[in-house]
Structure formats: structure tokens, C-alpha cells
Amino acid sequence: xxxxxxxxxxxxxxxxxxxxxxxxxxxxxxxxxxxxxxxxxxxxxxxxxxxxxxxxxxxxxxxxxxxxxxxxxxxxxxxxxxxxxxxxxxxxxxxxxxxxxxxxxxxxxxxxxxxxxxxxxxxxxxxxxxxxxxxxxxxxxxxxxxxxxxxxxxxxxxxxxxxxxxxxxxxxxxxxxxxxxxxxxxxxxxxxxxxxxxxxxxxxxxxxxxxxxxxxxxxxxxxxxxxxxxxxxxxxxxxxxxxxx
Length: 245
Known about the structure:
Layout: E1 3-6, E2 9-13, E3 16-20, E4 23-26, E5 31-34, H1 42-51, E6 61-63, H2 69-72, H3 75-81, E7 86-90, H4 94-97, H5 104-112, H6 121-132, E8 141-143, E9 148-149, E10 155-159, E11 168-172, E12 177-181, E13 185-187, E14 190-192, H7 202-212, E15 219-222, E16 226-228, H8 232-244
Helix pairs in contact: 5-6, 7-8
GO molecular function: hydrolase activity
Function: Counteracts the endogenous Pycsar antiviral defense system. Phosphodiesterase that enables metal-dependent hydrolysis of host cyclic nucleotide Pycsar defense signals such as cCMP and cUMP.
Keywords: Hydrolase
């Protein structure tokens, strides 16, 4: 059986309280962290892990869903502090995480900058500088869709592009749980597409949600929104229908 722990990381951003939900999976041999928050979040992750009785230095693997700053911001610091941790990502994401290629989110922010109203440009400039400050980190193992990782009762990789081309979600068959990352979010109790205005390919993101209906999912852990344990198939179908109208 997969043992998963939700790390509810609360913080303030631009004056608003926000929460992200990385996940720790654990068995008798491996402790796997999924995504790691903004730069400087390693102490927050360690404190939240300790609430579940998990010492951060026991983490053996870190799976990255995609290279957005709120998912990889602390990655380089974690790798420097705990070099034994193996970093895992989709093969399409690896060049952006290790610095071989320019961040797609940075490319998007720079490309759209001139079209912004003047009052929005200072915040956009700040965001661009923040993206430029992210330190690269090595990827020790790349994965592909449908690959089954043998840890923690089995972790199936689902390629869920749209938000970013190399975005992955994780299916835990033993507990019928989906770790969605940013494939879907919870907003006002409903599943939705994460930041549709910033999604690199919205129609592909909708197709990824459709693809999730092929899996026997009882609950979804969203990076933004936490645990959704309602009628998952109905919620996913309704989400697809909203965007296909």
C-alpha cells in the first residue's frame, strides 16, 4: 500500500495567504518527495515533514512534476544540502531543470512583456528576475509516460502535457490516488485547469484531463488545493465538458 503524506505549506505571496501541497511517499526502503516549492522553502518542507514523523535527511528521491518556480525553486538547495537525493523528471523537462535550456515560463514572460499594460510591467519585471534567479539542478533519472517506478507500492508516470510540455502526474495504483501536480487544481471545491491563462497549450491540458479518465482514481492530490475525494470521474468529465463547450 502506498503511504502518502500531504505537506501543506502555508505562506504569503504578494500579500495573500497561499498553500501548496507537496507530497511524501514512503515505504520501508524509500522516502520520495514530489515537488519542493519556491526558493527558500526547504526549512518549511522540513518542518512540515517532521509533523508526520519524517526526517528530511531520510528523503532518497525527489520527483519533479515540471519546472515552474513553485515546484523547483528549492531543488538546487536541496540537492546541495543532501547530495544523495536522486532527482527524477520527465525527459522533456530535464534540460530546463538542469539549465541546459532556457525556462519555458521565462520565455513566455519575456515574450508577452511588451503587450502588458504599463501598470502591470513592474510586477512582470520582478517575476522575470525571480525566474532568472533559479539555480539549475542535475536530473539523475528521466522517465517517460506509463513507466512504473517500483517504490512505495508502485508509482506510475502519466505524461499530462499542456500546463507545460513535459508535465507529469503520478498514479498510485495501490491506493487509487492521483498526484496531479498542476494538471488540475481545486478552486471553490471544483476541479479546474491550473492558471489557464498561463498554460502553454490549453487544449493539450484539456486532453490530459480526458486521459486521466482511463485510470481508476478514487482521490486526487492537487498541488494547489490539496485533497479532492469527491466523485472523481464525474468531476473530471465535467471539467473536460466546460472547456470543450
